[in-house]
Amino acid sequence: MSEPKALTPTPAGDTYKGWLFKWTNYIKGYQRRWFVLSNGLLSYYRTQAEMGHTCRGTINLATANIAVEDSCNFVISNGGAQTYHLKASSEVERQRWITALELAKAKAVRNQAESDDSGDECPTSPPTSGQGGGARNSNSEVQSTLRTLGSKVEDLSTCNDLIAKHGSALQRSLSELEGVRLGGDTDGKIRQVTERATLFRITSNAMINACRDFLSLAQAHSKRWQKALHSERDQRIRLEETLEQLAKQHNHLERAFRGATVLPLSQSNPALDSKSSGSVKGDASDEDDENEFFDAMEDPAGFITVPADPKYHRRSGSNVSGLSTETGIDDQSLCDEQSLGSNPESPQSLEVEPVRKRRTKIPDKPNYSLNLWSIMKNCIGKELSKIPMPVNFNEPISMLQRLSEDLEYYELLDKAAKCQSSLEQLCYVAAFTVSSYSTTVHRTGKPFNPLLGETYELDRLRESGYRSLCEQVSHHPPAAAHHAISERGWTLRQEISLASKFRGKYLSIMPLGSIQCMFEKSNNHYSWKKVTTTVHNIIVGKLWIDQSGEIDVVNHQTGDRCHLKFAPYSYFSRDVARKVTGVVADKEGKAHYVLSGTWDEKMEFSRVMQSNKGENGTEGKQKTVYQTLKAKELWKKNPLPEGAETMYYFSSLALTLNEPEEGVAPTDSRRRPDQQLMEAGRWDEANAEKQRLEEKQRSVRREREREAQQAATLPEEGAEGVEVAEDAVIEDSFITDSPLKTDAVEIGTEASQASDESKYHKLPPFLRPSVSL
């Protein structure tokens, strides 16, 4: 019976080691692992020999929660990211581990709090002799008290082990006594039970006394420590007030110095001087709002942001000094943002006709069961666009409509068009690139693959001042062209082609092509590309989507650049999920703004006052430390409509994308019968219609390839006739005998007999089928 002895944990100084059983999965169940508790970290290995080279996992106890399930099982969880289900061989061993873990957790929390406090103080300032002696005496007293409490805890642990040991022996003796018959052995057994009961009573009394001593000692020192804590807190508050007064005085002196040296006396503005002198008191009263300090943040992008010196705040750098003109947002630009909706030149203020009320609800998503593996097992390694998928995996919009959803936060481009500074404008454009991913966090459905020549028009001139048009210009590989123009001074266009691979456990979608954004007023031209989208848990588990990669938003007019990094989700990372960080720099590489946030919630930006190279990071790379001002919100996600979980998690804009419109082209995505049937909840009919359209497109492609070979030998007039016939067949793909057929069927039939120019006369030249990327 050497197993219980081998499983007994052994303390070695501040380190605690021993064998435990860890839950792995439903197939293997609990597996025996070697656990080591040291410095507030619990690590485990498969064997003791692995301690020198291979650690299987580590959990930080400072933020962990320890829960006991039953006599031998307990759980350690770290905020949901890491959870260890552990089992000891006995209740005594479990109690030893629980005690050691709780002590290690308390110590880790205390050390973390002390490190946070020491970070707020200046470690290089030498204390006076009196203060140094008092600190040393206080430190020695605390250490002595901790040693005393530690010895008491060891006594409690020893008493607990003795109680468990004698209790087990007593229980065993009582069981033996029940099975003994009346006879000569009865007296001996009774005497043995009496002795063991006496030992158990003595041990219990010792346990009670040790608990009483520990409680009284802890209460006595708790009052003293509480008093010392209040004293330290009051002293810290007084020190902060003193530093605040010094910062204000320095701020005012610097302002007076700049006013005296930058402006000559003849050019000084009396109204400005009177205003600034009269607002000194108001600036001082508001200083608390600006002097907000933040914890240093370590980003995976390779830089650290810390609060800037109070002298760099906006109130200290007035318009006279020119600081706001050089480095960031001035008061005038902020006013432009606030007055954006009330601009008298805006089309909204001149609008007379009532704005159309859009729909806010679509039919609920039906609940159909489907054997996923029977479809996906033959698709591993293939491209997504070549896999025949039923509508059960789709959402009732096409890829062209998904591209149009990028304009949901068009207000960011409206604000960017108002900006005077190109660097500030770049911040809003970068926020716009991030906002386009916010609609994908819950959208695990696949959009419909557009047919070749399919279009989608989104006219929001009355409501939002922009108009958008998309067309599928290539089928294999799938490629789409998108163009949007706004009355508020910006133009957006993108050419997107998708490359996707199914890897069994996950699906990777890599968008190819670039996105261009131009502003009329400043002639700034920006371009960027999209990051990789990954759909996880394709076979088993709940589907979830992640965005990862890097984006460079480049201003081709000025050379400014914003580098955005989408951090991939990791079970072992302590950062927030879906994190995005970025730095806005000019053409010389000097950083002016730091962006941070998440792609599914919001983005903020902070003005950089100073930057310098810091210490080496975890991978040996040197991190840049940016001193920044208080962060301002750039973008925040709009809440989903009520009942969105039953409507494919569509946003308010997505709910209106399939709404019927007058005057749209016969090839518009709204007229797709399979898409309409799916939205109406008739999935069986939608599957049949989708199969019909795809088969017709495949046959058209084969016919087109055959006729292309023939056209190589035909005269020029014959080749033109072939091209017109091809376009007619493409449009005829929308014709169906389904009950949802509209007047577009007759329109499409007539148009199929017309020429290419007459059929696409409503479309701009860059979206006609003859144009390729």
UniProtKB/TrEMBL annotation:
GO cellular component: cytosol; perinuclear endoplasmic reticulum; plasma membrane
Domain spans labelled PH: 13-106
Sorted UniProt keywords: Coiled coil, Lipid transport, Lipid-binding, Membrane, Phosphoprotein, Transport
Compositional bias annotation for Basic and acidic residues: 681-708
Region (Disordered) residue spans: 109-145, 267-289, 304-359, 680-722, 748-773
InterPro entries associated with the record: OSBP_sf (IPR037239), Oxysterol-bd (IPR000648), Oxysterol-bd_CS (IPR018494), PH-like_dom_sf (IPR011993), PH_domain (IPR001849)
Organism superkingdom: Eukaryota
Keyword Transmembrane in record: no
Record has Membrane as a keyword: yes
Membrane topology qualifier: Peripheral membrane protein
Subcellular localization(s) per the UniProt record: Membrane
A single GO molecular function term of this UniProt record: sterol binding
Compositionally biased spans, kind Polar residues: 136-145, 267-279, 317-327, 335-349
GO terms under biological process: lipid transport
Transmembrane segments: none
Residue ranges of coiled coil: 229-256
Protein family membership: Belongs to the OSBP family.
Protein name: Oxysterol-binding protein
UniProt organism field: Oncorhynchus kisutch (Coho salmon)
